[in-house]
Specification:
heterodimer; A: mainly beta; 5-stranded mixed β-sheet; 4 helices; 15 strands; B: alpha+beta; Cytochrome Bc1 Complex, Chain D, domain 2; 5 domains; 4-stranded antiparallel β-sheet; two-stranded antiparallel ribbon; 18 helices; 36% helix
Chain lengths: 245, 519
């Protein structure tokens, strides 16, 4: 009996309790992020014909990209980052909705993420899950992931079958195509276990083809290695925005 | 007296050696000791982290099986070993470019595969940055194996042997890209060459000749800044001034970095086993070391933008070149080139069968009828002959089927009598003889397969029109006996018919017939 009483009144026990409850108080919550692919202001339809800013017609056949290092930012700097990678694939409805299970409860001002795969994951050999090399987003001859793929048809393209293909990758300077994206919230978003936060993010495929560099299908129908990759990466840097309800 | 005693001792040794490896195919089985990594003396720390993928006997054997299996290619015709042959230090002898699927040619000379865990990057342009990822490049290259990684995994998943082997190694019967590539790495990481005469000289266990020593001195003065000891490469990329190949137009490292500075730079290759890994250079343009030395002798005046380090390369006279070449030949590591661990385990005789882990078995009583049935079956298997050629392959297949059937029967139930019967069959003289004969005689499909190499050999001295008859006479202890008759003249100039006799041996590794001796 005596020992138990001694433990309870000991200062160590008090510290332990404080620490224990402080951990307990920062509860983890679920956040769901929905990526919605668009072309301009219209939801992307794989069989529809669109026009680029030069008035050239095109159809999109394939649109995939990697999202990683998602960071939830707070004004006090107590940010939360997940190291997980996600492959968003227009052909797979499930891939467009991602769930993060361990975001600490709190009020956040913005999220940050990269489009691409960071250098560490490009250099450290075998990866699994979204980064499994069987996912068709891997360059075997020049090790590294393809960060974004936009393939389709455009009559203006002179390549065989009038196809265009933009496979953008490269994690090393001077051809680093990893781009950091910030999506700010107009009002702070509350993450809580009681009420799962859902964010809808618009990804505008048209932005791959414009600002700052307008892509002319007749002049640049294909980018499949690090040449010109940075140009396209600079274009799609601004393709994400928050869809507020 | 002493000589003949030694000869007998030696033959006994050879005999014991031969039988020790014929026995149950244990020759190709791998033990824990076989896969234990020992850093060669003087070598730096490996760059590949073996702790993350530590070779196990089963993992290594699985990797080896995959390395030798054409299932990795689109049409199941090309394996890794097609272009990476052990006797050439896992390069391809005498091929500037190797054949891929559909008879297509690759665009680069297949490099030797050795000491890979000390490499920071792979391919002559250094495009691949990790050993585990390297196999994806040849598998998916349209000129090489032209296959999709996902499709390889699907094919393996449909093969029950592989499913069992992967289950055995990773305790997972779903074959993932991760497990597939890790198995290959377990085999590749142990391809270590560090026992050449040069290495033994360094360890004070061998001596070099005067010419070899002079070669070493010249090598250290003129070549070692790029081909740095002990790996004989500094892992850098350099232009060696040979100029662009006008057909394949390979610009080397530039393809990876797109930096103009990297045009025509290639990864400095290791010179270990250089004697057997010809032809040389990224496009295999030089077939002899003499051509290579000749190039470097004139490189300082090359107009093909050689690396600045080559500007001071002196012109070497003929003797100096010869000495360097004799030194380079001391880098041949015969133990590596013949290491049994790395040999083709073969398609069926030495197929590493998945080891069935002992499960809780219930004992069943011995059924005398079943034992008699198997014994009769075993006795009734006879070696057949077609067109004078014994059918060893089907003979072994039929013999092996019986113990396999027993294994299947006793898989989930304990039956000592049947287990003993199975062991008895496998250890029997009949089974051993069958394997021994197959190892010596092989399985020719027709007589000409054996006779033709003899005629070819004879044609070096005798014109084809003079050959009048050729026949397969039978077998001796050493192999096949072939007689070829041909027109000739005796001492006084009269026309007579002479007979040449040949011993032909089967080479189970290359699966061809080799003429051993002419009488």
């Amino acid at each position: 009996m005596n020992i138990v009483r001694k433990i309870i009144i000991s200062p160590f026990f008090v510290v332990f309790l404080t620490v224990f409850f402080s951990f307990k108080s920062s509860q983890k919550a679920k956040v769901s992020i929905q990526f919605k692919n668009y072309v301009g202001n219209a939801i992307l339809q794989l069989d529809s014909t669109y026009k680029n800013s030069l008035g050239q017609d095109f159809i999109i056949a394939n649109f995939k990209y990697y999202i990683g290092n998602i960071t939830f930012k707070k004004t006090d700097g107590k940010n939360y980052t997940t190291k997980e990678y996600f492959l968003i694939n227009e052909h797979e409805e499930d891939s467009k909705q991602i769930t993060l299970n361990d975001v600490p409860e709190g009020s956040y001002t913005s999220i940050e993420f990269i489009i691409g795969v960071d250098s560490a994951h490009n250099c450290s050999g075998l990866q699994e899950g979204a980064l499994d090399p069987t996912n068709g987003m891997f360059w075997a001859w020049n090790t590294g992931y393809v960060f974004l793929k936009l393939d389709g048809h455009a009559p203006a393209s002179k390549s065989s079958g009038n196809v265009f293909e933009y496979h953008i990758g490269g994690y090393k300077q001077p051809t680093n195509s990893i781009r950091k994206i910030t999506v700010s919230f107009k009002d702070d978003k509350i993450v809580s276990a009681a009420n799962t936060l859902t964010l809808s993010i618009k990804a505008d495929a048209l932005e791959v083809l414009k600002t700052p560099t307008t892509i002319d299908f007749s002049k640049l129908p294909s980018v499949t290695d690090t040449r010109n990759a940075a140009t396209i990466a600079n274009n799609y840097m601004d393709m994400f925005s928050l869809l507020e309800k | 007296m002493k000589k003949s005693f030694l000869a007998i001792l030696f033959s006994l040794f050879i005999l014991v050696l031969l039988f020790s490896f014929i026995d149950n195919g244990s020759f190709f089985l791998i033990t824990k000791q076989d896969v234990a990594f020992k850093k060669p003396k003087g070598f730096p720390k490996p760059l590949y982290d073996l702790e993350t993928n530590k070779p196990t006997p089963e993992g290594f054997m699985l990797g080896r099986k995959l390395f030798y299996d054409p299932i990795l290619s689109k049409d199941n015709t090309v394996s890794c070993a097609t272009c990476h042959q052990q006797f050439a230090a896992f390069a391809q002898t005498d091929h500037s470019f190797s054949h891929g699927v559909n008879g297509l040619f690759g665009k680069r000379n297949a490099p030797a595969l050795q000491n890979l865990i000390w490499r920071d990057a792979f391919m002559v342009d250094g495009g691949v940055n990790h050993l585990d990822l390297q196999p994806i490049a040849p598998i998916t290259n349209p000129l090489e194996m032209n296959e999709d990684l996902g499709s390889v995994l699907k094919k393996l998943q449909q093969n029950k042997d592989y499913v069992a082997l992967f289950k055995e190694v990773y305790n997972d019967s779903v074959i993932s890209s991760n497990h597939f590539l890790k198995s290959l790495s377990q085999f590749l990481s142990l391809l270590i060459s560090a026992d050449s005469r040069y290495d033994r000289y360094k360890r004070g266990k061998d001596t070099l000749s005067k010419s070899e020593l002079n070669g070493l001195k010249l090598f250290r003065a003129n070549c070692a800044s790029c081909h740095a000891e002990p790996l004989f490469t500094d892992n850098s990329y350099r232009s060696n001034g040979i100029g662009v190949n006008p057909v394949i137009k390979d610009s080397g490292r530039y393809l990876i970095t797109r930096l103009p500075d990297d045009l025509m730079k290639f990864k400095v290759p290791s010179l270990r086993n250089i004697e057997v890994s010809y032809p040389y250079m990224h496009d295999g343009r030089f077939y002899s070391l003499k051509q290579v030395l000749n190039h470097y002798s004139k490189v300082s005046s090359s107009k093909n933008n050689p690396d600045p380090i080559l500007k001071n390369m002196p012109s070497l006279n003929e003797q100096e070149q010869k000495d360097i070449i004799s030194f380079l030949k001391t880098l041949t590591d015969k133990a590596f080139l013949r290491d049994k661990r790395f040999m083709d385990p073969g398609s069926y005789v030495f197929n590493p069968k998945p080891i069935v882990k002992p499960e809780t078995k219930t004992a069943t009583p011995v059924d005398e009828n079943i034992i008699t049935k198997y014994k009769t079956e075993w006795e009734s298997v006879k070696l057949t002959t077609i067109d004078g050629i014994p059918q060893y392959a089907s003979y072994i297949d039929k013999l092996d089927e019986i113990p396999q059937n027993i294994s299947r029967l006793i898989k989930n139930q304990k039956n000592t009598a049947l287990e003993n019967l199975r062991s008895e069959f496998l250890a029997s003289k009949k089974h051993k003889e069958a394997i021994k004969n197959y190892m010596i005689f092989g399985q020719p499909t027709n007589k000409s397969e054996i006779i033709e190499p003899c005629k070819k050999q004879l044609k070096i001295e005798v014109s084809e029109t003079d050959i009048v008859d050729s026949q397969l006479r039978g077998q001796s202890k050493k192999g096949w006996v072939v007689l070829v008759k041909y027109n000739s003249k005796n001492k006084s100039g009269e026309a007579i018919i002479k007979t040449a006799s040949f011993d032909v041996k089967y080479n189970p590794i290359e699966k061809n017939f080799v003429v051993l001796k002419t009488n």
